[in-house]
Structures are given as C-alpha cells and as structure tokens.
Specification:
Order of helices and strands: EEHEHHHHHEHEEEHEHEHEHEEH
Subcellular location: Mitochondrion matrix
Structural class: alpha/beta
Oligomer: single chain
Keywords: Metal-binding, Mitochondrion, NAD, Transferase, Transit peptide, Zinc
CATH architecture of the largest domain: 3-Layer(aba) Sandwich
Strand order of the largest sheet: 5-4-3-10-11-12
CATH superfamily of the largest domain: TPP-binding domain
Distance between the termini: 41 Å
GO biological process, one term: tricarboxylic acid metabolic process
Subunit structure: Interacts with GLUD1, IDE and SLC25A5. Interacts with DLAT and PDHX.
Largest sheet: 6 strands, parallel
CATH class of the largest domain: Alpha Beta
Enzyme class: transferase
Number of domains: 2
Length: 312
C-alpha cells in the first residue's frame, strides 16, 4: 500500500500532488478492521461518561488514522506491518548531519500533505466535550495538531507537535510553515518523487535525491533545527510529565482513545490512574497494554463511536 506524491519547483513556485493523499477514499486505508458497533457497549460507554465529572482523555494515533494519517502499530495497516522502515532515533538525528539532511528532505516533501490533514468526528466530539464542560483535560500522544485544529484548548501534546521547529542550540522556536519557505528558497531547482507516508509526515526518498538537498540552520544562532517532537529514544520533558500526573490525580476517570499504550511515556499515566483507583475505559481497535486495568474495553472506530455519546 503506497501513496505517491511529487514535489518540484516550477517557474519559481513549488507544486505538489500531495492533495491526492487527502482524498476521501484514502482516509480508511490506515484504519484496521473492527467489528460492528455493539449497542450494549455503546450504552456502557455512555454510562461511563455520564458518571464522569472530571474526565481525563488520553488519545493516540488511532484517533488520527481516520483523518488519513497512518500509525506505526495497527495490525495489517500500520507502518511496521506495511514496510521495513522504522522511525528516526533521537540520538542519530542529534549526532549526524547526514541523518538530519535525509530527515528534512523527506519531511519537506511530505509536509504539504501532512499539514493539510483535518480533524475527523472523533476530534470534533472531544472538542465538544470540552466546550460543554465534560472533558477536564486532554493528553495526546499525537504530533499532528488535529486536536488544536478542532478547537481543543485544555490540551497537553505529550510528544510535541510537528507544526513547530526548535533550534537544538538556542531553543528558538519557529513555525514549521515558515521553515517550508526557507527550504524552498535554498532548493529552487530540487525535485523529488516519494511513495508512502509515515505518522510524523515523513516520506521515502532515494539517497540520490537526498544528497543534493540543502538544509537551513537556525536564523538566530546558526544551530541545527529539529521538529518540536519527542523522537524515539528521547524522553518527555520532566515538567510536562509532572503536569500530566497532576491532571490525572485531579481527574475522577480516564478514557483512553485510539492508543495501544505500548510506550511507557503514556503507560505511566495509566498506572497513576490505577493507583488512584480511577475507573478506566479504553476505546481502541485491537489489544492494548492496559486492557487488564480497564473496567470497559471497546474495539470500534473512534470517529464512529464518540459522536454517539452525549456528554451532558
């Protein structure tokens, strides 16, 4: 399963076929199969939400697959199942200029399509829950800004956001869209064709395409630039972790949405909820690391089920 896209300069302006990756027909490509909705399970989740007064929701990649963004672990459709590619490691990115060049070349090609993705009914439902006072806090492992696009404000982006870029030396923050313009100025004749799309906006290019790509440095100090996200092998900021632990302890229930909770950066909050004896519900297609801790487990599409729940 591949989605092709091309990015090339044409008479001083950049053109792309990236919009093809956002067509309605592609949105289901990355969502694993799930059983039909069970009306009794829907009622159970409704009761869970009705009884919750300070609900904390933790979301993962399974929320965004219905917006056309692939995940890593979903059976049959995740990146691990479809390719032998693996996400970039923090240490490799920080220590190697060629690794950064390869990353940014691929990210440059993938960015127009990645940035164009829009919230799906699951994002809008959670935003509505917040607006109505049901959702106390939202913690997302996703880096796609779709919760923000849907209007969520009581939000912690646990692993950061691809829409921001940081300098590794001085910490200067830049909007990713601004950096795209700098890439275009440095590479006016560069073109590439890629296939596939990774969860963080990465695509797959040949080494020949990568070698001629020019990468800008920090406009403030000349240091190397990195997306404001937690790469694999890195750790989440301690202050952010402490903040989320506090939100969990203030909550009276926890709902996991679209996450297998395989990484410890999210699993530790489930353990905190268990220690506090909070009721835990999980909505995710397929098993999760925390199923044995949940009082309710649902295997359904997030965007299909969440809009059916009345948060009042």
């Amino acid at each position: 399963m591949t989605l092709g896209l091309t990015l090339r300069s044409a008479q001083g302006r950049w053109t792309s076929n990236a919009s093809r990756g956002c067509s309605h027909g592609s949105l289901g490509l990355f969502v694993p199969a799930s059983p039909p909705l069970d009306p009794e399970k829907v009622k159970e989740l409704q009761r869970f939400i009705t009884l919750s007064k300070r609900l904390l929701v933790m979301t993962g990649a399974g929320v965004s697959t219905e917006s056309g963004i692939p995940d890593y672990r979903s059976e049959g459709v995740g990146l691990y199942a479809r390719t032998d590619r693996r996400p970039i490691q923090h240490r490799d990115f920080v220590q190697s200029a060629p690794v950064r060049q390869r990353y940014w070349a691929r990210n440059f090609v993938g960015w127009p399509r990645f940035a164009s993705h829009q919230p799906n009914p699951a994002h809008w439902a959670l935003s509505n829950w917040e607006r109505l006072g049901k959702l106390y806090w939202l913690v997302t492992q996703n880096v796609d800004a779709l919760h923000t696009k849907a209007g969520s404000r009581r939000l912690t982006e646990l692993h950061g956001c691809m829409h921001r870029v940081l300098c590794l030396n001085c910490g200067e923050q830049t909007a990713r869209g601004v950096l795209q313009g700098r890439f275009e100025m440095l590479n006016p004749t560069w073109s590439a064709e890629a296939h596939g799309l990774a969860p963080d906006g990465d695509v797959f290019l040949t080494e020949e395409e990568v070698q001629s790509f020019q990468v800008p440095s920090c406009a403030r100090c000349g240091g190397p630039l990195k997306p404001d996200v937690t790469f694999f092998g890195d750790t989440v900021n301690h202050d952010k972790v402490d903040f989320v632990h506090k939100r969990v302890r203030e909550a009276d229930s926890l709902l996991v949405v679209g996450s297998s909770v395989q990484v410890y950066s999210s699993y530790r909050f489930i353990l905190t909820a268990q220690e506090k004896k909070l009721p835990i519900a999980i909505l995710n297609i397929g098993p999760t690391r925390s199923d044995h801790l949940a009082c309710l487990k649902l295997d359904s599409r997030c965007g299909e089920l969440l809009p059916l729940i009345d948060p009042r």
